[in-house]
Amino acid sequence: MIHNRSQEAFEKAQKFIPGGVNSPVRAFRSVERSYPIFIKKAKGNRLWDEDGNEYMDYLGSWGPMILGHNNERVLAAVKECLEDGSSFGLPTSMEVELAELIVNSVPSIEMVRLTTSGTEATMAAVRVARAYTKKNKILKFEGCYHGHSDSLLVKAGSGLLTEGYQDSNGITAGVTSDTLTLPFGDLDKVRELVAADKEIACIIVEPVPANMGLMKTAKEYLQGLREICDSEGIVLIFDEVISGFRLALGGAQEYYGIEADITTLGKIIGGGYPVGAFGGKREIMEMIAPLGDVYHAGTLSGNPISVRAGYETLTMLRDNPSIYTELEEKVDYLTGEIEKAAAEEGVDLVINKLGSLYTIYFTAAEKIENLEDVMATDTSKYITFFNTMLEEGIIVSPSKFEAHIMSIAHTKEDLERTIAAARKAFKVIAEQG
Ligand SMILES: Cc1ncc(COP(=O)(O)O)c(C=O)c1O
């Protein structure tokens, strides 16, 4: 494949943008490429780069594109909206419609605030949890990523893991000392910690972690966290920026039947446009300004374009519940065939999957359950996998620490092509030994 234009674009980009990209994983450094592909346009599950190469897409813009890129209904609604103006700094009726749709879809959300990103949503959720409990500390889990606000960039997943560290420079010791961390999945450790430290305001967790690769959460674990929070007066925050409206309309909490006190959302609820949201119990949410003294605001919060794109997306998901079973069936078929192909080519791997998400780990281990397990998986085999898939015109996550994402636009033929390409990659991996 020829990538001259991408290469040129990256050379220029590095002069003006740190690392040439506006979000680190996009640089493709972790998959040992000297430049990323620069995308020109997308439709359905296809991307086209600046050189005109076509790719099948398993990134889905890191989550929002459950309906595929530029879904006709979303696009038509956005075009209509653009004619009326892009931001007013004053409320619109459509914001209320989207809020109602979210409240009706996620059982634990009684009131919701819109933001412009997932990062803002989690940052505000922590703030209101602290105000509500009058306590300062937060507990998060190693390898979970909750955006890039200071207090949540401790033992974080996603791009930090990809870049080879977990704590960002530039954050004061005072901030990080209020953020406690534990390995994901160990309830006893949580019980010990909350028994010893009565200053914990909230536990924030990705109910289905997808930023250290995908983890399959046991229902008992989430149930246990719920019970601990109830008995200790701790606010339970489910960060459903990825899992919200993806595992089910009501997110992981509907999937597992466990409710959070505060939920954070993003990605899908903006239909591919900038968005985030946090919502929860009325008595917590009523602490936010102008009703209360917990400040949250945003020039573009609830901007009409994102709101309309999100409204159309969520309405389509609500009106077509079979989408979720279809996505799960596609992932089951694809991952089952990939496992078979790997076994036939003599390549050891473990695939974690849930709903429309999955991660392929190259390892001889039997299962992958937490960050420590992921760290021990083979990075060089993953790099070979990524690069072979790319040459075959299929773009998968440029990091072993992320999930692969299915959309409704992937057809049976697409899955067959993906399986054949994966088999090729496994042959190369087997040859490399
Ligand atoms: C679980 C989770 N929370 C929060 C965020 C931050 O969202 P954003 O990138 O929109 O700021 C992300 C981003 O990937 C995420 O995966």
Automatic annotation (TrEMBL):
Cofactor field: pyridoxal 5'-phosphate
Keyword Cytoplasm on entry: yes
Family matches, as InterPro entries: 4pyrrol_synth_GluAld_NH2Trfase, Aminotrans_3, Aminotrans_3_PPA_site, PyrdxlP-dep_Trfase, PyrdxlP-dep_Trfase_major, PyrdxlP-dep_Trfase_small
Localisation per UniProt entry: Cytoplasm
GO terms under cellular component: cytoplasm
Entry's EC annotation: 5.4.3.8
Catalytic activity: (S)-4-amino-5-oxopentanoate = 5-aminolevulinate
GO MF entry, a single one: transaminase activity
Entry keyword set: Cytoplasm, Isomerase, Porphyrin biosynthesis, Pyridoxal phosphate
Any coiled-coil regions, as ranges: none
GO biological process: protoporphyrinogen IX biosynthetic process
Associated pathway: Porphyrin-containing compound metabolism; protoporphyrin-IX biosynthesis; 5-aminolevulinate from L-glutamyl-tRNA(Glu): step 2/2
Classification via Pfam families: Aminotran_3
Residues bearing PTM N6-(pyridoxal phosphate)lysine: K267
HAMAP family assigned to the protein according to its UniProt record, in alphabetical order: HemL_aminotrans_3
Family: Belongs to the class-III pyridoxal-phosphate-dependent aminotransferase family. HemL subfamily.
Subunit architecture: Homodimer.
Protein's name according to its UniProt entry: Glutamate-1-semialdehyde 2,1-aminomutase
Species: Propionigenium maris DSM 9537
